[in-house]
Amino acid sequence: MDRYIKAPISKEDALACKSGDYVYITGTIYTARDAAHKRMYEALQEGKELPLAMPGNIIYYMGPSPAREGRPIGSAGPTTASRMDKYAPSLLDLGLGGMIGKGKRQEAVREAIIRNGAVYFAAVGGAGALLSKAIKSSEVIAYDDLGTEAIRKLEVENFPVIVVIDSEGNNLYETAIKDYCRL
């Protein structure tokens, strides 16, 4: 099913997304990769405030290439989500509504998705130039010293993703394999 949602994602939209749905996101999402996640985790351990509020927000695991003239961002393809797995449950427990990446997630992340009624989306790897066309603006909001791994605020319009793990724990990577084997 095709779904059009606003970001930040409402609890109702997160719960309505089902594994295998095609989703088009419009609104504000944030980027963060390994180094930014590590800093956020350390901030939490030290009792410090995070550079962005988690409730309802969506984090895109992406580090962009430099923007071409007249564009807000360069190629913007997803990075492997499992590198953030040790940090994701803590952020989900703080209300993170969704994550966008590529690849499988550990069981602890799946459990945190279920526990918090969140969702894991996949963006198509290798399609960074195409995905960047859905990004209307990009602004570094934290950890500027990390370069491409800084946290960015993105305004997106009909950003295309696929629901991989839904709020009930259904995992497209597992069900697709089973469906394929039945054929």
Describe this structure in words.
- By secondary structure, the chain is α/β, with parallel strands linked by helices.
- 27% of the residues lie in helices and 27% in strands.
- The protein has a five-stranded mixed barrel with strand order 2-3-4-5-7.
- Strand 2 (22-31), helix 2 and strand 3 form a beta-alpha-beta unit.
What does the secondary structure layout of this molecule look like, with pairings?
Elements: E1 2-7, H1 11-16, E2 22-31, H2 34-45, E3 58-60, H3 88-93, E4 98-101, H4 107-116, E5 119-122, H5 128-132, E6 135-142, E7 151-165, H6 172-182
Parallel strand pairs: 1-2, 2-3, 3-4, 4-5
Antiparallel strand pairs: 2-7, 5-7, 6-7
Structural class: alpha/beta
Number of strands: 7
Secondary-structure element order, as H and E? EHEHEHEHEHEEH
- Average pLDDT confidence is 94
Strand content: 25-35%
User: How many alpha or pi helices?
Assistant: 6
Ends distance: 22 Å
Strand order of the largest sheet: 2-3-4-5-7
Q: Radius of gyration from the CA trace?
A: 15 Å
**Overall body shape:** globular
Report low-confidence residues grouped into runs of 5 or more: none
Task: Give the % helix.
Answer: 25-40%
> How does the major sheet shape up?
5 strands, mixed, barrel
